[in-house]
Amino acid sequence: FILLGLESSCDDTAAAVVRGVPGDAQVLSSVVMGQSSLHADFGGVVPEIAARAHAERLDVVVRQALADAGVGLSGLDAVAVTAGPGLIGGVMSGVMCAKGIAAGSGLPLVGVNHLAGHALTPRLTDGIGFPFLMLLVSGGHCQFLLVRGPDDFTRLGGTIDDAPGEAFDKTARLLALPQPGGPSVEAEALKGDPARFRFPRPLLDRDGCDMSFSGLKTALLRTRDEVMEGNRLTLQDRADLCAGFQRAVVEVLAEKTRRALAVYLADAPADPVIAVAGGVAANRAIRAGLETVAAENGVRFVAPPLSLCTDNGAMIAYAGLERFAGGARDGMDLSARPRWPLDQTNAGMLGGGK
Ligand code: ATP
Ligand code: FE
């Protein structure tokens, strides 16, 4: 199968072409247009600006993705599109564009859950089999998923408040470091002493896989104000704060991963794998922490390349391919959904799906 995939649920406008079968597919092209410069002055993504930019750019990225892949619409088997969850204006722009393509070319339409796109990415990059354990950790999400099939996800737990990416971004803001906060905090942490400040590890004492990251920024703010002298933070203080913050995140994720693995391994999967996705998976300290936990348990650790961990069209094309291969088709009544929990991602939940 050859599918075109469209993604426009947050602040990246993306399209890609993927070819293959479930568990054995290649990315023929992947085009991502970010919008960070459009939102830079506002300290966050402005939904109206995002929706307008998506509407203007979808055409451009689709054309480019098809050209890069060297296929025309007639060479495709279907069009896949993110139908949620996300900023509703952007999701609607994508769904509308995909419907236009489908109506104009007679191609089948397949709606995809954005989180399923992230969660199935390690099958695209590494061809891993079901069931696998997924830690999806990004700017907006943090959850453990037991993935048993392209439409079969069980959420084992996740953050009850902020996502870690958000915590990294807020930490960067509190310490006057550039956005996105993840990479800048990680770079500072390398120069710092992680043992100097001890930040809370919320919910670590509680059973289960739930996590909380919002208290971390409060603790960080308090500690920052304590060490600041006359409004000035030394470079060493800043690096130490970053290192202490990052260590707390690493330890919480590692310990909760241990518990999620215990649930996953209880069913004795034949070739156990834990995979990560989402922008925060780029963090080397977090990766190292997860790798250690995986190794302790004799489980393979899979991390897709960063370009496929953050929002992109290839993951949507691929998740669409998995659904398409399973017989899923959506009609012109496919709707854009701002909220769409993954464990309700079964076909039939989508308008017109089967
Ligand atoms: P979602 O996909 O959940 O809607 P999003 O699009 O904001 O959210 P991503 O694009 O997957 O998320 O990831 C962006 C987030 O990843 C940002 O919060 C960023 O700070 C964080 N991030 C990127 N690199 C790193 C890093 N090296 N360490 C920690 N966090 C990082
Ligand atoms: Fe995403």
Automatic annotation (TrEMBL):
Keyword Glycosyltransferase in record: no
Residues the record lists as binding substrate: 136-140, 169, 182, 186, 283
Cofactor note as given: Binds 1 Fe(2+) ion per subunit.
GO biological process entries: tRNA threonylcarbamoyladenosine modification
Domain Gcp-like: start-end pairs: 26-318
Compartments (UniProt record): Cytoplasm
The protein's required cofactors: Fe(2+)
Annotated CDD domains: ASKHA_NBD_TsaD_bac (cd24133)
UniProt EC number: 2.3.1.234
EC top class named in words: transferase
Annotated residues for binding of Fe cation: 114, 118, 311
Alphabetic keyword roster: Acyltransferase, Cytoplasm, Iron, Metal-binding, Transferase, tRNA processing
Presence of the UniProt keyword Ribosomal protein in the record: no
One GO cellular component term noted in the UniProt record for this chain: cytoplasm
Signal peptide positions on this chain: none
Coiled-coil intervals: none
Function (record text): Required for the formation of a threonylcarbamoyl group on adenosine at position 37 (t(6)A37) in tRNAs that read codons beginning with adenine. Is involved in the transfer of the threonylcarbamoyl moiety of threonylcarbamoyl-AMP (TC-AMP) to the N6 group of A37, together with TsaE and TsaB. TsaD likely plays a direct catalytic role in this reaction.
Protein family: Belongs to the KAE1 / TsaD family.
Protein name: tRNA N6-adenosine threonylcarbamoyltransferase
Species name: Primorskyibacter flagellatus
Classification of source organism: Bacteria, Pseudomonadati, Pseudomonadota, Alphaproteobacteria, Rhodobacterales
